[in-house]
Amino acid sequence: MRIHLPENIKYMKTISFRKLLPTAALLLAFLSCTTLEEEVLDESLTGTGQAEIVSGSIAPVYGMLRQVWLHTVNFGLQEVASDEAILPYRGGTDWFDGGKFIAVHQHLMTPTNSLVGDSWTYITLSLSRAVAAEEQLGLEVENGNSNAQNPLYEMVAIKAYLNMLAMDNWGLVFRKDRSDQQSEILRGQEAVDYLESELLSVVNLISSSNGPGRMNKHAVEALLARLYLNSAVYRDPYGTPNFRPEDMDKVIEYTNNIINGGYALSPEYFDLFNDDNNSNPEIIFSLDQRGVLQTEHSRWQYWSISGDQVPRPEFPSTRGTDAVAATPDFIQSWYDAYGDVDPADADARFFQENTIIPENLRDLTGVNPTNDEDHFYTVEATEFEMDRGILRNIIWGPRKDGNGNIMTDENGKVKIYPVINRRSSGADIRYVDHTFQVDFTNEGSLHNTGHRFSKYQFSRTAPNCCSNSSVDIVLIRLGEIYLMRAEAKLRKGDNAGALADVNTLRTSRNARPEQTPAPLNSIDLDILFRESGFELYWEGLRRVNQIRFGKYEDSWTEKNDSDVNKRLFPIPQQAIDGASNIPGFLVQNPGY
After folding, report:
1. CA 534 to mean position of chain CA atoms
2. pTM score
3. Start and end of every RagB/SusD domain (predicted)?
4. Most exposed of 274, 334, 440, 502 (fewest Cβ within 10 Å)?
5. What is the mean pLDDT of the chain?
């Protein structure tokens, strides 16, 4: 019996994988007909024979997604370009990196910006791997290996997912199904049609039982919902989006399928980002980092955390990096929403207190780092847990002695003190105080400035918590699905339906009843945009949402550029140079 193949898939030859390729080679490998002679990565899943061929084809593709979503690759690009996050030149010593983060935040990037360039490199490399895997699996199916059928559908879906990232960033997609083909660059409606056809070709064929670490039916439906919701922007990235009713109907159709598909909103919001989140019933698609994969990254965890904070006393050498902070504008949106009530008391998504400071130690009046030897409490090393959500003001944590050892009491319990600022304080020793204000001035750029994102748990099961993690990186979850459906309903005039979806989402975060967000009384696009920020912050989605809601040309801290051309990033100069032998193949985006 012949195994069914989507009509748009044909196969010519096999390709294996090399661990690292120079940038020019990556570009040519994906854009042109180059055949790659590479060795297989040590990323295969368990199995022998046909199963090993299948796992050896798909594992390098899923594995490379971790590189795409590194803090200094696509995650940083999305966050720092938005009104959610800012990364100054910390203390005049850290995180300048050629000015790439500052330029992206101010929307003043150029085609040589390496944050943009690295995102292009890893997205196109991942696409190259997906094409190769698709080709290999197609041959396996043709040769009767039925185990390759569903992984083949997964690779078609992953290609579409990666192409949607390229569409979000540069307004283009790459159509390529075989390694001996030259990629075809598609933009606008052609790109939307291609993405739609790819996803529709597998949505009713792909398994619905794959776990969140693999593409499954509901993940494909989520991508279709994203595609239809953003298609107005994709068709005309520089104009005023025309949200077609038929597109919104499709968003509602696919989000309905997912909402009725067995997923459940997590009562404790921060359980979504804990060590055991692979089994959380809200998560639809994630980067699986368990077991042998726990050597994978925890950059989303530690990138924003103070460099003077030790997140896990079991690993004394670990610390944060004092990088990205929340913009005052983003934090102010929480204050404006809740008025006289502190958002930490009103919304379980804003803050979870895990470092429980005894009442008699909370008042630091007259206490400072030079005379606080007795101002501590103790916990077992494995019981110390950082606060989660938005970290503000003075923070507490373990302290080291002069030999770099974690300070403990006579029973071996860890002493927890106010954390001393050793990175920017100079001669004036003081505590780390995550101030509201952070900007590009000398004072605003000090290591302590800005409230911090502490959304992900520092892993208890990985070898250390700052290079490695067992916490899955969440890419698609049910909370976003409810927001997409609410937006589609609102854009069709169904305010009541949109309000019901948003209130379902808000009131579901009820594990801490006193902090459960109250239902809203009304909804409009501005309120919905605000709600998307409260629900999805630090998940790499803010920039795309800003563009769709017409907020990307607004001004915020240290950003005043209002050029609509900056909705898309420049195509990296290295890519244009690499394709210079094909006249007109890669055309720079307007404004660069």
Report:
1. 15
2. 0.92
3. 465-592
4. 440
5. 90
